[in-house]
Write the structure tokens for this entry.
Amino acid sequence: MAFYIQKYGGTSVGSTERIKNVARRVAKFHAQGHQLIIVVSAMSGETNRLIALANEVQSNPDPRELDVMVSTGEQVSVALLSMALMELNIKAKSYTGAQVRILTDSAHTKARILKIDEDKIRDDLKAGYVLVVAGFQGADAAGSITTLGRGGSDTTGVALAAALKADECQIYTDVDGIYTTDPRIVPEARRMKTITFEEILEMASLGSKVLQLRSVEFAGKYKVRLRVLSSFIEDGEGTLITYEEERGMEQAVISGIAFNRDEAKITVLGVPDHPGIAYQIVGPVADANIDVDMIIQNVSHDGLTDFSFTVHRGDFDNTMEILRDKIQPHIGARDVIGGDRIAKVSVVGVGMRSHAGIASKMFRVLAEEGINIQMITTSEIKISVVVDEKYMELAVRVLHKAFDLDQVF
Amino acid sequence: MAFYIQKYGGTSVGSTERIKNVARRVAKFHAQGHQLIIVVSAMSGETNRLIALANEVQSNPDPRELDVMVSTGEQVSVALLSMALMELNIKAKSYTGAQVRILTDSAHTKARILKIDEDKIRDDLKAGYVLVVAGFQGADAAGSITTLGRGGSDTTGVALAAALKADECQIYTDVDGIYTTDPRIVPEARRMKTITFEEILEMASLGSKVLQLRSVEFAGKYKVRLRVLSSFIEDGEGTLITYEEERGMEQAVISGIAFNRDEAKITVLGVPDHPGIAYQIVGPVADANIDVDMIIQNVSHDGLTDFSFTVHRGDFDNTMEILRDKIQPHIGARDVIGGDRIAKVSVVGVGMRSHAGIASKMFRVLAEEGINIQMITTSEIKISVVVDEKYMELAVRVLHKAFDLDQVF
């Protein structure tokens, strides 16, 4: 008998039929005697429908009112799942975020959880209820409804697990775990039985969108046992997100290959290399609300250096304009060049900390395939390269094989 | 400068375009310096959509969870109207029923309002906000979301007006007031400038569905000034619901003609006339959740009487079955007969209390047209007759003319 928080995403509750399937799955766990809190998202498509309505009415929807609207999506889901559970003769009860209550700050549309009241929930659990809690939402001190931002339902699950000291927080999704890389590109990709928090943070930020990054950080901070499973497969064990020290000796050096083709690269050539130059380039870009991902600056020659970074592909034209109109003349750079036909490929693994030679192996493997590396950045547990977009699949496949990720061990 | 509660129904907020129209109307009142609380219903169709979803999941949807779902309809409306007001540069803020809070009992799907917290609302009004409050909903002492039953948004408006002592509660709807009868049947039908609470209660229960009955009772109890207006016509004055003593001397004897063709009549013939017989007939019908409207029992002959009543037309077959299978043999009645091709026509008016001859005039007018009266019931301020359905329009027209309702006075 254990105490589980289970989170089901929008796809898992995307129709009343699917909600009934979730209810049957929950019923199985309930029959095994487990205590259960189920966190659900809005039915898939619902949040976008509501945002579209808001946009029809106000050119820049008021964040407080947007939260009032959007939070109804999960409110409908919790009621439907509670009903579906009752239809299976299980005592169930729904809670909105405000009812729990999940106290947040007042940063509407991207609120942070401050505190979770446990009393009502504990009483209901003791009384034998399966509780169904609306993900993604809370209420601030004044009682206004807040939302946690896209994907915030994962965060709700983890926060409940942390506050109530659940045995495990299980994130049910449309994949059956986290893979060494995308199986659509490398058929030999394997589901990982475990992955460390550090690795998944790197994988997530590189485009493997199985878990919301913030919920993983949250879980790491409060040492919540987090597991990703499929809501469409029976009895899968998914992937357990774990701590480095828990991992066995035989852990592979590299855990997975991540990739991302949503980016564009920009290089400012011939930049006078003096203090403050990085800020002068990146500052105006950030001021225009453009996110910058990789940033690379190499040593300078003759007082001049080249400064490169990547942005989301959709921001490419806008960024080029800002650089050419505002920044280049201002800082006296020689030229601004860029391209949006690129892809980023990364190898990730906590094991690389203690192993030399990962980078050189990666570069050799790519060279053997004639794939030119345009940019490189590294962190403690990952190495990312930018290559021509057309080589992305090939790069992922050969790296996956070279690092033995298709081997079961 | 006055303090108005304005309620807009589902049709008035049925699309984002209509919501913008409501916002423009509210803006006009705001510009005149009035304090405003706007109560809105769910967008038309939304409540039915949500109930249909619930029915897909649970054969008999749990009332608590149904309220959680259905209340999202108004929650979306209040956010959208607040946004639309802000788009017109008006400070606006939405409130759900639970946020106000509107405290109700725990009778889910048909809760009664117990108390309204004024503090937050008063503060916001003082701060210059137009408040947009979700109709139809509240929360019980445990914080569970409740709904007040269909049409409960009118009740929310009246309850707010009573609690906050507003100058007037204005119910905006798709008609521009209350008419002497249905203008589709009698083109000469006039909008009444005023109608008494007693009259509107009789009119409403007879099928004139402009206002929800309960809200009218509520308004009468707390002496709330209630006005019905059109949300599609500019500057109409609508119909003011008033108290008998406020009415002028020149008030007509009859205020309006109501009618209803949704009923069926049933007569149990040759019933042994002894105490308890009415209960023995009506009890099993009520137990089957069938509403009974008119009930008529005349004096008996030779210890036998005939017992008649009307039910909703959709309940006719079911009721006949109950009577023939369970009641007739049990009480030893001679026969059960009935018909569903009937209509009820009523004349209503507080003036009839002090005027003899209304009934005889009504019966004479119908007789002159060859319309046979099948059943008659009376109350202090109304006389209802059941006639063959095919004569309904004719009956309404001739009565409307006979009682001078087409005269402007």
